[in-house]
Structure formats: C-alpha cells, structure tokens
Design brief:
CATH architecture of the largest domain: 6 Propeller
Number of domains: 2
Strand order of the largest sheet: 12-16-15-14-13
Strand content: 25-35%
CATH topology of the largest domain: Neuraminidase
Distance between the termini: 116 Å
Shape: globular
Length: 440
Amino acid sequence: MLKNYSIRLVLWLLIQLLVEVKCQTTPFRSTQRSSHTATLIDSNLYILGGRNDETGRIGNEFFYLDVSVPFNTQNILWHNLTSINIVPAHISAASVNGGANNKTLFLYGGSSDKVMSLVYTFDTQSNSWNIPKITGDNIVRKNNLKGIINNYGKMYLFGGLFNGTTTQNDMFILDTKNLKWELGSTINAPSPRAVYGATYVSEQHILYLGGFSTASSIDGASLSLKEIYYYDMLKDLWLTRVTSGTIPTDRDSFSAVLGLNGQKVIIFGGINNINKFTPQDTLYVLDLNNFEWYIPKISGSIPSSRYWHQANVIGKYMVISFGFGYDRNIDNDILLLDISNDEEYMWTNIFDPNEVKPTPPTESPKVSPTTTPIPVIIGVSIGTCVVIISLLIGGFYLYKWHKNKTENSRAIPTPGSEGNNNFNHEAFKITTRNSVYNHG
C-alpha cells in the first residue's frame, strides 16, 4: 500500500511539473493596444496597460520583450507577468526607469475606472510591485503626458490632461531616489497641452513639441510644430525656438526620440484632429544644429502611420510598440527603424542586439588648416616682442661698450670734449630708449 502511494505521489509531481513547464513555454500573444507604457530597463522592454483596440476594453496586461537576443517582428516572444501585476486596468499613464540603481519602473497617473494610486513601482530585480510613500508638494493625478528621466533620477512630468477635460502646462518633478515631489517653473512655459512629443536631449535640456490643447477650440485642436520648447533642468526655466524647413503638419499623439548622434530628433506618426497621416507624412527629422525640419531618405517596407503608440531607442533601432490605426494583418505590433545611418533610415523586421550603437561624435572647435588658435598667436607675439627688445637692449650696450673702447684708444681729449661726448651719449640713449618703447 505504501508502495502504491509512493507511485501515485511521484506521478502527481510529474504531472504538476509538466503543467508548470507547459505554462511557462506556452507563447503569450498580447492583444493589440494603444495608450500603454513602454519602459526599457536593462535588456527588457516592459509593456503595461493600455486599451484593447479589438474590444475597446481597458486591460491590465503586463509583459516584456527580451531585447538581449535577436528577434523577428513577425514572430515575437513575449514574457507574461500579468499574474503578478497589482496595478488596476488603466490607460494613458507615464513611466520611466528610476530609483537608486535605475532598475525600478515608476508608473505615474493614468486613467482608470477603478481606484488607483498616484504612483506604483516595480522592482525588476525581485519582480515585485509596491506603492511608495512620497513626500513633498501635493501633486494631482493627470494622464496623457510623457515621463522623462534624467541622469540624477528625477522624473519630469509636463502638462497633460486633468480630470479628463482640461490640458495644463505645469511641471511635476519626482525625485525617484529620495521619493519626493517638487514643482518646476511655469514662467514662459508652452501653452497647455497633452499627448505631445518629448525627449531628453542633454544633461541640461528636455525638448517638447506639438500636442493637443483643449483651449484651442470647443473640441480642442492639434498644435503646431513650428515652435519647439526647451526645459532647462539645471536652471528651471523655459526657452522657445522657431524652426524652419519642411515643418510637419500640426499633430498630437506621436512619438519623438533623440537620434544616435545626439543632434537630431526623429518623430513618427500622430493624428491631426482625429485624422491619421499617410505613410509619406509620418516620419520627420529635426536638426538641432539649425532647427530645420526635413523628411529623411527611407528604405525598406514603409508601414502605416499610427498614433497613441510608444517609441524607445534600443541599440541602433527606433523601436515602436503597438498604437492605434494599423491593420494587424499587414503591419506588426513592433516596428523597427534602423537609424544608424543619418543619410538613409531603414525599416526592417530583424532586431540584432549585437549591432553596436554608434558613439556620438565629440564636439570640438572647428579650426581650418590655415587658421592658428588665438592662444598660440598671443604666445608667439609676446615671445617675439621679448626677443626683439632683448636684442635691441643688448645691441645698445654692445655699441656703447665698443664706442667707449674706441674713444679711449684715441689721443688725449681737448678741454670741453668730454662734456660734448657726454651730451651726445645721453642724446643717443634717449633716442634708443624711445625707439625700443615705440617698437614694443
């Protein structure tokens, strides 16, 4: 009897093990979605929330894509973490990677029909969610805004939609290391807006452009990209720049990323008063050196435009995830744009993590071959003057010594000649000194 029990126990354990292995190896197929978040932490791209575009239902799916291995966008292996997700179903939140070691996902705001905390954190090392206690200024919930993290662990949240009806232009700042809220300046800030484009461009500046404003008309309107706005994180102030070139049509709900050389901003997709764009009107580049827009040269199979999507730069690729407005039977949930060559971008289905991202060029003063640096010119000039003065003074004393020696070798001077010699000598000394100073 004991033997039979042992056999049944072993069989039961084997069955459980097979079930567990099958559950872990069964491919997870995500539903098409928009207004989600996409957060890159180490080699994982975490996707959370969003609206199911097939059913219209708001979901709480939580999964990630491992970008440390090659993949084809036509057959993506997602890793499902929905079973451990504590965040209610929501849309239009903002997320960044922050915390003490930049390995924590911070989720702010969003819209939900359930009770939802203002901030959630996900520790990617322990795979655990938490609701942190944050001090500082009182912050309200907003949605349809972009979270930007800097090198010091501060999350910047500009504008957005308040109460689902009003666009705003204030700046919330979350210190993800010390868990403290701050408020940024609104002096000279852009007009109130939501679903705008934003990207981190340097240790000092965040760039904002476009978006949607409820104040523009009764139904709201998409905003122009002719003017762009810099927020100075170090000085807490706003700057405005006017662009030129082939300026994109007014739009919102698009994505914006910084190019690999740090000198260009690439935007993709968007809508204009609920009208989507054609593939030819969906991709633009802004050169930050002269603030000029242009349409880049593109190769590969150009996808349909989409909006309410997300974009991340991973390796040499602009990785666009999900969104609204595309046919899943034609285009993939993930789009890959190879941006390693500024002369020609390329749409591709193959992601290769071994392709090293080009190192941004180091900016240095441009000196033409015929131009000598000013410090060198000054040094050479001073050295030349010193040499000339030294030669003149030395030459004068050599002349004086030679003259005295010559006069001493002559006959005994007549009375009064010594005074005449002294007078002529002093006159020569004055003339020589003046000539030296004038030269200098």
